[in-house]
Specification:
mainly alpha
């Protein structure tokens, strides 16, 4: 089987396909039907995905809140200790 040569421009496909291979593929009506079904379910899928991401990110959010609260508490304790030490040593 030899190579076929054809002229290429901006609109030509990068990979050459035979006409029989294109006929075996999906029909335009099938592709449009699947595309319409996907668009109909898009809002539902977005809501489900958002809830899943929120559930999976809860441990990270709580760990960050715990880290910030511990850091704030330690800053307050150290600040109070420094204030008390200054008064005692005067």
């Amino acid at each position: 089987m030899g190579r076929q040569s054809f002229s290429a421009d901006e609109a030509s496909p990068l990979i050459y396909r035979r006409a029989s291979a294109l006929a075996e593929g999906f029909k335009d009506a099938d592709v449009e039907m699947v595309r319409d079904e996907i668009e109909d379910q898009r809002s539902i899928l977005l809501k489900v995905e958002f809830v899943q991401i929120l559930k999976m990110s809860c441990p990270v959010i709580f760990a960050y809140m715990l880290q910030n609260s511990l850091q704030t508490g330690s800053i307050l304790v150290v600040g109070r200790m420094v204030f008390n030490l200054r008064w005692w040593h005067i």
